[in-house]
Amino acid sequence: MRDVSIIGVGRSDFDREGSYMELSAEALQKAIADVKGENIFRTEDIEIAYFGCTTTIGTNAGQMVLASLDMLGPGVYNVENGFISGITALNGAWQDVASGLHDIVLVGGGGNFGADERGALTIDEIGKSWKLRKTKGPPYPRFFAQLARRYMKEYGITREQLAKVTVKNRKNGTLNPQAMFKQEMTLDEVLNSEMVVDPLTKYMCCPMVNGGAALILCDSKHAEYYQDRPVKIAACTITSGKAGVPYLESAYEATTRAAREAYRMVDPFFRARETIDVAQIHDAFSVTELIGYEALGFCNRGEGGKLIDEGLTELGGDLPVNTDGGAMSNGYVLGASDLAQVIECVYQLRGQAGDRQVPDAKWALTHIMGSGENGFCGGFGGRGFGPGGGYAVTVLQKQE
Amino acid sequence: MGKTTRDVCVIGVGMTEFRHRADSIVKIGVDAIQDALNDIPKLKLSDIQAVCCGSMGGGPMLGQRIMARTKDMIGQEGLTGVPITNWENMCTSGTCAFTAAYHDIAAGIHDIVMEVGVEKLGKGGLDFDASGKLTTTKGRGGGGGAPIAPMMFGLQARAHTQRFGTKREHLAMVSVKSREYARTNPNAQYRQQLTMDDVLNAKMTFDPLTMYMCCPTSTGGSCVILCAADIAKEFQDKPVKIDACVLKTSRGTPQLESGWDPNIRASREAYKIAGVGPEDIDVAQVHDCFAIAELMHYESMGFCELGKGGKFIEDGHPCKGGDKPINTDGGLISKGHPMGATGGAQIYELVHQLRGDAHNQVMPIPEVALQHNMGGGVGIGMAYCVNIFERGW
């Protein structure tokens, strides 16, 4: 297997306007422009493309985007995997280059989730597609609130600690010119905002938006030719939930399994807590970030709250998390948000993150998870994160 | 483009019969998996390390939904907690999922990966409803005029006739040949025989394509189990080696050329990677969604000269007993076309041909086989796949 590097990245602003076509095309053009000069890299050099998108947009989405840029010719694979669609496209592209089949591969992703009427994410008509709908019992907040209550009871986590996740991420968002929300929030504002499902308030849940993101991959040996500061994909693992895991345990199990596999892929003695310099952790709901700390091995079980109290994961802390503001500042779009996490890590490792730069970052990690009909939704009846869903962990390394 | 770091083999194939039925899409997927497991008794479901699912209109996270039911429906402990990915590329969804599984093993990430393709459709022509979801319609197509797909290929047939003098009889021969092959295929949707007159006098869908020259929509599933070549012999005495997997999109070429361009580029690259030529192919499956498409694929795959597709079938090369048997399972026209499952079903047929136990066994037993699968319409991009297989024992 060959090593694979990222040589170009680009993302659109995430907002409630625009369509996935324009936004993905914009991201793609930015990624191409991000690779070194005209005579070194041309769009014709792209041998194949992977496009992550979920079912709210039509078939052949990747082809439509490439056609709008007049770039058709190479093959396009379209990947659907719910919340982790983008990272699944990256995983496919990574395997493609690693196997030696292609050398320069494009990864794109995008989605339309903000244009519809505002509301909660639901699944329409026996699993045919996602839909935003105003509802009294929004399924995802309900499920994660149930998880949060259980988590708080088991480990003595407080509402303030949940709110601190939002406060931290919104603060980071002010430093990211591409974030949707650029205003800081105080602890009181988060705690006193409208209650969605107890204990999750409005600002502990992320909004749904539109957006696009793109990356260009190349085999590591030639990466420096195309990019002065290439970033190596050290590991990229995907897994799904197992059946028959106890309720609270099921929130950790699949993420831990994906992380362990990723760490092992980097180095059998990889010490995540000591090595990782910056991480992007799934924060669609503030509780998932706290559980993420623990599941990824950054702290012991139940110490997620302590970690955020100590300010370890803030910018300037020992292990900054969600430096681009995460989903709390950027919103969430199935297909692009997970790639945006990778892009933020690339900026950090290149030293291009501006005001939110983590000094001397060498290793970065992204974590994303999500599910459709089964998986989390298996939890609607109180059965926990059932089988299915998707959980992905990516480890990135500054290429020396 | 190049050689992969390690070889990959197909060790097991399975499919359900293709016909309209009330079963849920999840059940059809599990049935296909069950059939593939029956094909390799030495392999347990829990030996599989990753799953790639292909479907065009199956909805979000279909692979996860299918695997969650394996425990109840297959009886072994089921398979959960493995990486599951879902691939959509119109009619090539299944083939793209298969290619993803191939890349996974070729890169050395996993050793045994399963592809499952499944689709559930109603009767009638393909259409999209107002929200862009896949449906079928008995009436006219989206624009209120003729159904879209037959129109695109019908216009292509007219252009081909105008330029090369291809006759309606040539188109009809494709359908007649297809039914001859399908007669012994238990999984085919239509098995009754047709004469030239039946085809030519059938209801006109879009001139010159009659009803029998168009493939029917269908419901069905298929499953392919792939394995690293170095351990394939542990599970299967006759593993089939994958030589090349190529995917291209078209480039907005004009009407007639768009039927060749991406297919020619894909087949050329596949031949180059595999180190074989069209003359070495012993048996092939091409995407005969419409009779004209099959004639043009003969040309694109290099089996005959450009424009000579009609002559090629007239001389009987692709027919039963011919020297270049094509669509030996009846192809899409007789077997039916459930998009996500079509790619896997083509591989199913080729693997059995190479093993020497197909229902329409080509003699002498083939050594090299070609699969061609395309998705989307004419001249507007989409996906064109060419895969080459050979004996791995």
Give structural notes.
The complex is a heterodimer of chains A (400) and B (393). With 400 residues, chain A is α+β, with helices and mostly antiparallel strands. In chain A, 35% of the residues lie in helices and 22% in strands. Chain A has 13 helices and 13 strands. In chain A, helix 1 (20-34) crosses helix 2 (61-68) and helix 8 crosses helix 10 (286-295). The longest helix of chain A is centred in the middle third of the chain and has 20 residues, at 247-266. Chain B is of the alpha+beta class. In chain B, 34% of the residues lie in helices and 20% in strands. The two termini of chain B are 26 Å apart. The chains are: A alpha+beta (400), B alpha+beta (393). At the A-B interface, helix 2, strand 3, helix 3, strand 10 and strand 13 of A face helix 2, strand 3, helix 4, strand 10 and strand 13 of B.
Strand content of chain A: 15-25%
Give the strand line-up of the largest sheet of chain B.
Answer: 3-2-4-9-1-10-13-12-11
Total count of strands of chain B? 13
SS-based class of chain A: alpha+beta
Shape of chain A: globular
> Number of helical runs of chain A?
13
Helix share of residues of chain B?
25-40%
Topology pattern of chain A, helix = H, strand = E: EHEHEHEEEHHHEEEHEHHEHHHHEE
Question: Helix and strand string of chain B, N-terminal first?
Answer: EHEHHEHEEEHHHEEEHEHEHHHHEE
Average pLDDT score of chain A? 87
Stretches with pLDDT under 50, minimum 5 residues of chain A? 374-382
Largest pleated sheet of chain B: 9 strands, mixed
Shape label of chain B = globular
Rg over C-alpha atoms of chain A, rounded to the nearest angstrom: 19 Å
Give average pLDDT of chain B, whole number: 87
- Assembly context of the chains: heterodimer
Distance between the termini of chain A: 19 Å
Percent of sequence in beta strands of chain B? 15-25%
Helix percent of chain A reads: 25-40%
